[in-house]
Amino acid sequence: MSVRAGREFLAVPGPTTIPDEVLQAMQRPAMEIYSKPLIALTDSLLRDLGRLFATEGHCYIYIANGHGAWEAALSNVLSRGDKVLALESGKFAVDWGDTAARLGLEVEVLKGDWRHAVHPAEVERRLRQDGGGTIKAILALQIDTSTGVVNDIAAIGQALRAAQHDALLMVDTVASLGCMPFAMDAWGIDVAVAGSQKGLMTPPGLGFVAAGSRARDAHRKAGLRTPYWDWSVRDGDSHYQKYAGTPPMHLMFALRQALDMLFAEGLDNAFRRHQLLAEAVRRAVTVWKKSNVIDFNIIEAAERSDTVTTVLMADGCNPNALREYCDSKCGVVLGRGLGPLNGKAFRIAHMGHVNAPMILGTLGVVETGLRALGVAHGQGGVQAAIEWLSDNVRP
Ligand SMILES: *Cc1c(COP(=O)(O)O)cnc(C)c1O
């Protein structure tokens, strides 16, 4: 017997739930690629991406996922043999560094332990040792989706300035843009990267890159430029050049609708909604962990992200059995543990198009699964989430 009839609920950190209005925005015939409405659509998207990144810099839309946006960012500002420093806080910074290595860059990883955020003081210390300025770029993540950590990007920017180092600061916001504050120019970020399918509630397939003035200077002598990713080509006057070919028009209409919804809600409200729902998840996990079987992956409460929570299970417990139960019996899909966390953790996403019933429902299903599988857990996690929301979302 199962109780999974109806729409499956994706509680995975990407792709996330796509609002019906966004799905419907794609239901239209293709259009001529030089038509005025399509050109106006591109202009509006580029303008609003700049607003989301909070930058006066140039934005680029690629037909790509986050991995493509990573490659776009690296190849536009660096040359073969350049050294980059990847700040490890989970799987994704290391993977971005791996992409860099495969492009012919020299990659140094500033080691992290997967249970803490990047320490800005360690970044500063490493940069001070690099008096000759051999490090050309720093790769950092605002939220690492594997560990559930949020890094203090403003403080990392401050660390670069304190060390008086002029490496470019490149930041991945794939799992945070539109869900929490980000201020590219104010924080001294040179290149920012995002994707469509996480906080931005749009189908997978678009990658975004924003470039500040220092990045555009570096671009002029970058040796890794290739025809598809190249900013100079995309800066050209013709609309066709902006996508290095046919525009992904249906995804563009979807993104337009998603951004309209985000701006109608108000960015500050959307950030607050994410905070409130994330805290509801954390309240539940805090109760469940009383059994000493369940725990937060991220040790410091202040370093836990507002878009995804990575939950550890003690040896001998199988998080994939819990995921299987929640999916096959209850229709809720939880994220798996990535890399070394596979078989040790599950992840609850709370990013993008999420609301109270989705989060309370997900927590209720996880608690149902824990009980059905006989996993020891503190009683009353969902109740704690309810108390948090009812105390903080006032009539
Ligand atoms: C999902 C994710 C990526 C990779 O994005 P894809 O679209 O799967 O290529 C990169 N960085 C972060 C932080 C992510 O969450």
Kindly describe this structure:
It contains 14 helices and 14 strands. It has 395 residues and is of the alpha/beta class. It has 2 domains: 20-263, Aspartate Aminotransferase, domain 2 (3-Layer(aba) Sandwich); 266-392, Aspartate Aminotransferase, domain 1, CATH 3.90.1150.10. A 7-stranded mixed sheet has the order 2-10-9-8-5-3-4, sandwiched between helices. Strands 1-13-14-12-11 form a 5-stranded mixed sheet. Strand 6 and strand 7 (149-150) form a beta hairpin. Pyridoxal-5'-phosphate is lined by residues 13-14, 65-67, 92, 141, 144-145, 172, 174-175, 195.
Concise summary:
The chain has 14 helices and 14 strands.
Q: What is the secondary structure topology, with strand pairs?
A:
Elements: E1 9-11, H1 20-25, H2 36-53, E2 58-63, H3 66-77, E3 83-87, H4 91-102, E4 106-110, H5 120-129, E5 135-141, E6 143-144, E7 149-150, H6 153-162, E8 168-172, E9 191-195, E10 206-211, H7 213-220, H8 231-234, H9 239-242, H10 249-265, H11 267-288, E11 294-296, E12 308-313, H12 319-330, E13 332-336, E14 345-349, H13 356-372, H14 381-392
Helix pairs in contact: 2-10, 5-6, 10-11, 11-13, 11-14, 12-13, 13-14
This protein binds pyridoxal-5'-phosphate.
Unreliably modeled segments: none
Q: Quick one: CATH superfamily of the largest domain?
A: Type I PLP-dependent aspartate aminotransferase-like (Major domain)
Catalogue the ligands. pyridoxal-5'-phosphate
Radius of gyration, in angstroms, nearest whole number: 21 Å
How many separate helices? 14
| Sheet with most strands: strand arrangement | 2-10-9-8-5-3-4
Q: Which range best describes the helical content: under 10%, 10-25%, 25-40%, 40-55%, 55-70% or over 70%?
A: 40-55%
Q: What shape does the CA trace take? A: globular
Total beta-strand segments: 14
Helix-strand sequence: EHHEHEHEHEEEHEEEHHHHHEEHEEHH
Count of separate structural domains: 2
Category by helix and strand content: alpha/beta
N-C termini distance: 39 Å
Determine the mean pLDDT.
98
Q: Report the CATH architecture of the largest domain.
A: 3-Layer(aba) Sandwich
